[in-house]
Amino acid sequence: MIATHYVYWVLFAIMMIGLYVVISHGNLLKKLIGLSIFQVGVFLFYISLGKVRGGSAPIISPTVQTYSHPLPQVLILTAIVVGVATLAVGLGLAVRIFETYGTVEEDEVITRSATDPADGVPEDSLNGGGGDAAQGDEA
To answer: Quick check: is 136 in a domain?
Structure first.
């Protein structure tokens, strides 16, 4: 039984490796890499579910009797686009966090955020939003 479904066990292992990386590491970039690994495992799992033994591509032909289901491939194409967009947003957030706190380590960001509550707040908003009016008129 296990030998006939080894692909599912390998994909389950890939998903668990990705989940472990997300949970165990404090570095935000490593968390994003783990999330990507987990997504790849899910993608491959859905694609493997859509494969029918002896099936052909879903192109109607008089010589083909069994077809593989096309829906998993279509859903995975959409999921890949969403995964890439999620990764891009995550990397953008990681860059902003690094610019603000000087680190991408989760514990250090939380510590620095708790010790300096005004950290990351622009100077203008601390002065009442006056902008250049606080510096005087320079003509």
So the answer is: no
